[in-house]
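pipeline: protein-struct stage 2 | run 1193 | DNA 3'-5' helicase
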Amino acid sequence: MARNYTLHTATAAAPRIDYQAELNEQQYAAVTAPPGQTLVIAGAGSGKTRTLTYRVAWLLDNGVLPEQILLLTFTNKAAREMLERVASLVTADTTRMWGGTFHSIGNKFLRWNAERLGYRKGFSIMDREDQKDLMETVINSSGIDTAGFKFPKPEVIGDIFSLADNTCTSVEEILKTRYPYFEKIAEQIVRIRKLYQDKKVETNCMDFDDLLTQSVRLLKEHEDLRERYQRQFEFVLVDEYQDTNSLQCEFVEMITGRDGNLMVVGDDAQSIYSWRGADVGNILQFHEYWPRATVHKIEVNYRSVPEVLSLANASIANNKSQIQKQLQPAREAKGQLPALVPLDSGSAQAQFIAQRILELQDEGTELNEIAILYRAHFHSMEIQMELTARGIPFQITSGLRFFEQAHVKDVAAFMKFAINRRDEVSFMRMVKLIPGVGGASALKLWNAWLKTDASQADVMTGKFSDLLIPMSVPKKARETWDQFAYTLDELIIDGVPQPPPAMIRSIYEGVYEEYMKSKFKNAEQRQQDLEQLSNYSSRFTDPLEFLSQLSLLSGVDTDNKPDAQPEDRDAVTLTTAHQAKGLEWHTVFAVWMADGMFPHARAVEESDAGLEEERRLFYVTITRAKDELYLTYPLINHQARDGDILMRPSRFITELSMDLMEKWNVRSGW
Ligand SMILES: Nc1ncnc2c1ncn2[C@@H]1O[C@H](COP(=O)(O)OP(=O)(O)OP(=O)(O)O)[C@@H](O)[C@H]1O
């Protein structure tokens, strides 16, 4: 018979932490949970980080060796911060602990063992750029005809493969559900996948997803390694479990073993990443998969005033798929209900927010304690303009300023060139979008253009196509080049530049839509941006005036450096709801709270699951507010193409009792 014998560290006898005093009752129960499998459901603002760090400290205080603990997090920063916090709590040598993202841990396993999978020592890890280059090489040598705009660019193909890997599904399935417009070339894409995989092994390279897929394979195929790591990692902890995907779950199981000690922490109500492969089922059905697991709920919220929390609780109660919980406020009531603010238009909404921000500032709220949250990037366009106009500094944490985005600049390049036919920069930007046209051919085309009379004339009298089509272009570029020329014809008719919305529509329908689908994985979002751009442009009759305005808006306020840390800058934060996860502010403006905008129209059409995910996103949005919450929406959405559209408040608002909010009637004053 075998005898179990446990090693203890020297510090085990003398814990320095008064766990009971430093944690609330529910946190304490989770932190001190016995070994085995444990699911910790920690509601918004209930102290997930504190619970995890104290759990690690507790393990160390109870004799677990640092190297026996593995902490898996979503970012390396999160792991670093947690481990630093643990180091400050305990005397044990925490440097021997294992903590990091799934990928960084996978990388460690593979560094030692990749040879068992047919790789050689010292494999390289490809970043996105390298991955794109290798994919390009593979596609070019595959013999597949990729001419024209329709064939997806290497980045998009990479994204399709990545989704298939992370959701443990086939490429065909990903195409069917997420990229239906590429279904007809499924066979070629599958072929490219095989070639790409072979090429990676041949060149001894792994991409980011390999770090996980190959780690899972390693542990699946090699029992000795599986046993070794399962024995080493006596305690596995996983943060943000609601956002794990199928591959990560497999990884966790491989490393923990069916009988291992696993603690996962998360909030099912904040699972918002299904679009990139996360599966909320991992947390909702945790108990089915790990039947002996105990469940702990942490339901005290330290962040928000009770008024905000009541609204959040009432909202999420409408979701059917969820683990029941009722967050309790630790804070005192403030006497101010969340505000529901309908406004006449998008620009009135922007004015309201700007004005209210200035008032809040006068009342003593720092600008970096204020955030504007939205469902889609284009919802921030008018707000960016208004804040700029009023000199209110802001930073955008979720991407570039609206007018600096590639697709906005691409479309503007067509317009600029059509109007100013000596604009070399715009010409080059435009023609380089064509497959087969690189820097050298673009320059040749530019020189050919300079020889035409039209390039020097003040008014464009003839047709672009008459001049451009006869030019010599690379064979691969011919079809698209001609299409470009005809599109330019539509921008200036009989010497008269067309109104900006008409120009944008011609460019979009003539050339850009196809390009966007093949080039960007988030083509749909970009399409919405361009629609919004077109709506905005309908205020201008003169395209030149519109273009000047665009350039001015993207060039101003160089102070707004995206790399500056939010906490370092006295600036309002503009961010999508997705990017706001894990953050908090004194005041939150949740904007465009209109049906079809939030929830997103597509999610409503799709399925109940889609709508529930949108509601979770709404929940994440409102639970970011500590003291003040404003839900705003325009009553009229001005559309360049369809005229004014009457908006209704979001169903996430109308399904709630109006007693939970205070409606503000806003009027324009003189
Ligand atoms: N026992 C406690 N006593 C006092 N304050 C606490 C306690 N536990 C957590 N807090 C505080 O609660 C706040 C919210 O914690 P944290 O940011 O970790 O929440 P969270 O669970 O990650 O929230 P979310 O998931 O909504 O982002 C923090 O300021 C934290 O210091």
